[in-house]
Design brief:
By secondary structure, the chain is mainly beta. Among the domains are: 97 residues, Immunoglobulin-like (Sandwich), CATH 2.60.40; 108 residues, no CATH class. The chain is 9% helix and 48% strand. It is built from nine helices and 53 strands. It has a 22-stranded antiparallel beta barrel. A hairpin with a 2-residue loop joins strand 47 and strand 48. Helix 6 packs antiparallel against helix 7. Belongs to the TonB-dependent receptor family. InterPro entries: Beta-barrel_TonB (IPR000531), Beta-barrel_TonB_sf (IPR036942), CarboxyPept-like_regulatory (IPR008969), Plug_dom (IPR012910), Plug_dom_sf (IPR037066), TonB-dep_rcpt-like (IPR039426). Keywords: Cell outer membrane, Membrane, Receptor, Signal, TonB box, Transmembrane, Transmembrane beta strand, Transport. One of its GO terms (molecular function) is siderophore uptake transmembrane transporter activity.
Length: 883
């Protein structure tokens, strides 16, 4: 991989330059920040407005920074979570500044930059957006910061293991999070090979998180084609502002260990660096659903408990065998026998520990007080389970990321390079199947599966010859072959050797190892033109290039890496009218793709701010977004046994339906090649402060999807041609991704309430409604997988009981619903979770004792059908902060 050493070289060259704007002598400014009760406020941030010069207060609330008065007065901006930001103008140095911040318990004065690509008050955002502060982040339940985000309205989290979690908003949830983009300091954190955001495995540790912002609904007009159902942005702490050492250690149930460290230091006035690291390990959540796999996934399946055997959701290696028409006893002809597979726990074996290791250094340099250069990297490795067309054990899976940014007060230029590594990952379905189809002994021509089915057929025939009925003979044969003598013992050395051999082999058709290693190089830039005091024009552009590699193990890249690229440009005009109470914005973006036609994504919004302090804000917007099929949708080639998964960007496919039958048999179908998915959305909402203690946020949306991307299964030839007949020699059950030929409509609403009785008690409650409308002409072969609870709510309380004791408690409930992936389809029961946090701070020592847990009552909490129960996880820990 080519590493961007040029960024480091650029930084060194710039550090050596003598810049005239820094030639003036900076002088110190000192003071303190207090609460309205006169108590010191440690951790408050102080910036010189319009610059990158800033600092934070110490334990006693004191601060010092250096500034230059040669160009006139400067404005200090002082802020802290839960307080109203205050600005103070200084015309000369002052070493006795005292700033008193007033409480803002409902966070109505928070500033965001995600919704409009520029800073604005969160109440006046043109679309639905949530902001999670650093204080809230540290109170979220373990083990993954993103798990706790489903405490907020409209956000769904889908967990397929302890550390593999996928976020979505407004429907069509999935373990892949392909409709929501995830950014860390505005850099994409997805795996280039899989196009997934694997929870926080590639994100930042909580102790370095300044805030998290989540945009609900489409944001393609500003963020590109895959900002389809939302954007999640994690913002890290600035080493110029938040210096010192932070160390956090937690331990708890399931042999949990979670250690995080952050060290940041400013050297002089121009240079600062930070190093952040995190390591987490625990016994993972493993899936154990042994219900019969739905016939929409395995159309040959028998009922659960059948004496012919059946394919179970979380058994792997349930090899199928169709009894031939030549079999002498007619009652069994054409029936499908299933060999019992292996449980997930058995196949995962000693790889059952969830793990996450992250190391993230960065270096920042101020070229001037308004221009900052930052370069950094991220090394991440993890072990978790992922679900899509199969269940996969990602072992030592990770990414290397290198990024750089040059940023001014009204512009930025960014670039990054990311390479992912499959490590020692493997496919559980393939592992189970290849074990069953291995020879029973070295040099033998008989496999374990052949021995099993042969014994079943022989015993069935013998039993019928003794006068048993069909049902009795099936039971006798089933009892014989499931007695243990005809299956490989999972506790045997032979099993362990086969498992080790197969998970180490990446050869298609023989091994289960998945070891893709793909690259993503991207760059983007933006400039904000100030057209007038009340008008702005933002313009930007972005480019990304994928280089996909798997050596034919995952993609159709038999000879060389597959190259794919995208390019886009956007603009947004905003204008404030009516004494700046009416904010109108028009945005649009054009994206060009290698495999698809160019697409235009517009967004129009209007916000009206009413009230004496503009505390009541009414908004309406219309947006159109496009989703580019994932790299897997476009280029996959993966044989998972019962079906062959293929990419679909060439000339489409011809075949036969698995569900529609005519007089002559299964109907012939044509499957068109992929194109972009389109979404149009209307939204109205209100966000405001009813009083100093009560905040309300409510919204309604309606979505219309066209060319919806989903999975389609059919019988066809792998080269795309139509077989001579259904099931003809050489044909397979194929799965490809294609577009629906009908419109898919959804709608929903969300309501959030926050009431701050006192510092000791703040109540929060929210409700979310999501509905997929009935669609006429739904193709039975086409699967949309809405995967979203119709009704969901949260009720929570938090506060600081005394000056040093803080707590948070949240109860979440979601209505059961159908959940489908290409791996499994079924009904989820209602699920609920109670999370808790308790912390006691020894302020003089900089030490906080912490305790709490997620799902503390161990309630039913299966979020993905075919996934595990996400059970109770309790912890105790401590955090040390040294300024």
């Amino acid at each position: 991989m080519q590493k961007p050493y040029y960024l480091l070289l650029l930084l060194l060259l710039l550090m050596g330059q003598s810049l005239t704007s820094w030639a003036q002598e900076a002088v110190p400014v000192t003071g303190s920040v207090l609460t309205d009760a006169g108590q010191p406020l440690p951790g408050a941030t102080i910036f010189i407005k319009g610059t990158f010069i800033g600092t934070s207060t110490s334990r006693d609330g004191g601060f010092e920074l250096r500034t230059d008065f040669s160009n006139g007065p400067v404005v200090l901006s002082v802020s802290f979570v839960g307080y109203v930001t205050q600005e103070l103008t200084l015309s000369k140095p002052d070493n006795g500044i005292k700033v008193t911040l007033k409480p803002n318990p409902i966070q109505a004065a928070e500033v965001i930059a995600s919704a409009s690509r520029k800073e604005e008050n969160i109440l006046q955002a043109p679309v639905t957006v949530e902001k999670v502060t650093s204080e809230q982040v540290l109170r979220l339940p373990p083990p993954d910061v993103q798990v706790g985000l489903n405490q907020f309205k409209g956000i769904d989290v889908n967990g397929t293991s302890m550390l593999m979690n996928s976020l979505s908003t407004r429907g069509f949830n999935s373990p892949k999070s392909e409709r929501l983009i995830q950014l860390t300091d505005y850099f994409d954190t997805q795996s280039p090979s899989l196009n997934i955001n694997s929870g926080n495995l590639q994100g930042m540790p909580e102790i370095d998180t300044e805030s998290i912002e989540i945009i609900h609904g489409p944001a393609s007009a500003l963020y590109g084609a895959n900002a389809f159902n939302g954007v999640l942005i994690q913002n890290s702490k600035d080493p110029f502002v938040t210096e010192g050492l932070t160390l956090r250690v937690r331990g708890g149930g399931r042999e949990l260990f979670d250690g995080q460290l952050r060290y940041a230091k400013r050297i002089g006035q121009k240079f600062a660096f930070k190093v952040t690291g995190a390591y987490l390990t625990a016994d993972d959540w493993l899936a154990n659903n042994y219900s019969a796999t739905d016939r929409r996934v395995e159309n040959r399946n028998n009922d659960q408990g059948s004496t012919l055997g059946y394919d179970a959701v979380n058994n792997y290696g349930d090899v199928a065998f169709r009894v031939p028409d030549s079999y002498p006893i007619a009652d069994l002809r054409g029936k499908t026998l299933f060999m019992p597979g292996f449980a997930e726990q058995t196949l995962v074996g000693t790889d059952e520990r969830a793990k996450s290791l992250k190391v993230q250094p960065s270096f920042s340099y101020l070229l001037t007080n308004t221009i900052k250069v930052t370069v950094g990297g991220s090394y991440s490795r993890g072990t978790a389970s992922y679900q899509s067309s199969s269940r996969y054990r990602f072992k030592d899976f990770g990414t290397n990321q290198y990024h750089g940014e040059i940023k001014g007060s009204r512009w930025f230029v960014r670039g990054q390079s990311v390479q992912d590594f499959g490590g020692n990952s493997y496919d559980l379905n393939l592992l189970g199947s290849f074990i069953q189809n291995s020879p029973i002994a070295t040099g033998s021509g008989t496999t374990y599966a052949q021995r099993y089915f042969g014994a079943y057929l022989n015993e069935y025939a013998t039993s019928r010859g003794k006068g048993q009925t069909n049902e009795q003979a099936q039971q006798t044969a089933f009892s014989l072959v499931n007695g243990g003598a005809f299956q490989l013992d999972p506790n045997s050395a032979e099993f362990r050797n086969l498992r080790s051999q197969i998970i180490s082999d990446a050869t298609p058709g023989r091994g289960a190892r998945l070891n893709p290693s793909s690259l993503l190089n991207e760059g983007n830039a933006q400039y904000n033109f100030r057209l007038a005091e009340t008008a702005d024009l933002i313009v930007g552009a972005a480019y990304r290039k994928f280089r996909l590699g798997s050596n034919g193990n995952l993609f159709s890249d038999i000879e060389d890496r597959i190259q794919n690229s995208e390019f886009g440009g956007y603009a947004q005009f905003t204008k404030k009218l009516l004494d700046e109470r009416l904010n109108v914005a028009l945005a649009g973006r054009v994206d060009a793709f290698k495999n698809f036609d160019p697409a235009f994504s517009p967004r129009a919004s209007v916000v009206y701010s009413a009230g004496a302090t503009r505390q009541h804000n009414f908004r309406a917007s219309f947006g159109r977004a496009f989703r580019s099929p994932t790299q897997l949708d476009q280029y996959i080639r993966l044989d998972v046994g019962q079906l062959l998964l293929l990419g679909n960007v060439d000339n489409g496919f011809q075949g036969y339906s698995l569900t529609r039958v005519g007089a002559a048999g299964p109907l012939a179908i044509d499957v068109a090649s992929l194109k972009l998915e389109r979404l149009s959305t209307y939204e109205v909402g209100y966000k405001g402060a009813i009083s100093d203690k009560l905040a309300v946020d409510v919204n309604y949306y309606r979505n219309s999807y066209n060319d919806f991307i989903g999975a389609q299964r059919f019988n066809g030839n792998p080269d795309g041609s139509r077989p001579a007949s259904f099931g003809a020699a050489g044909s397979r059950i194929l799965q490809v991704w294609t577009n629906a030929n009908q419109e898919v409509n959804t709608q929903g609403a969300a309501l959030g309430l926050t009431y701050a009785f006192a510092p000791a008690l703040k109540l929060a409650a929210n409700y979310t409604l999501n509905v997929q409308d009935g669609t006429d002409g739904q193709d039975a072969d086409f699967q949309t997988y809405f995967n979203t609870p119709k009704h969901k709510y949260n009720v929570g309380a938090s506060g600081t009981v005394i000056s040093n004791l803080s707590y948070a408690l949240n109860y979440r409930w979601a209505q059961g619903h159908e959940y489908g992936t290409p791996f499994a389809v079924g009904q989820l029961a209602d699920y609920s979770v109670t999370d808790a946090y308790l912390g006691y701070n020894f302020a003089k020592m900089g030490l906080t004792l912490q305790g709490g847990g997620s799902n503390i009552f161990n309630a039913n909490n299966i979020q993905v059908y075919g996934g595990p129960q996400i059970g109770r996880l309790l912890y105790l820990g401590l955090q040390l902060d040294v300024k």
